[in-house]
Amino acid sequence: AYGKGTAWYMGTMVPEAALQKYLARAAADAGLTLPPERFPVIVRSAMNPQGHPVHFLLHYASEPTEVISRWDATDLCTGHHYTAGQKIPLKDWDAVILEEDQETTAD
Fold first, then answer.
1. Which residues contact 62 (CB under 8 A, 6 or more apart)?
2. Within 13 A of 5's CA, how many CA atoms are on the CB side?
3. What is the pTM of this model?
4. What is the Cα 44 distance to its own chain's centre?
5. Model confidence pLDDT, tens digit, residues 34-73
6. CB-CB contact of 72 with 83 (8 Å)
7. Which stretches within 1-106 are classed as H helix?
């Protein structure tokens, strides 16, 4: 414990699997939830000028992979629609730009 918070210090090399466990525990202690994606997939999010959430899925590897969509969204480059929980394939060194679906209400 340090002041009003908690600090973690690691003074040795550990296997990657152990490091992942320490990171998850430190994040949980801080009240954070880690995203499900791990490097080589990076996810960044922003708002477009219309106020819609947009998510950038960046794949930094030569081996294809897939991620699970966290959103109901449309790929702005292909027009393909994904629902939350659906697999999104990522080719080598791929980038996918998703715009979240906007809820509509009946008048």
1. 92, 93
2. 8
3. 0.76
4. 7
5. 888 989 999 999 999 999 999 999 999 999 999 999 999 9
6. yes
7. 16-29
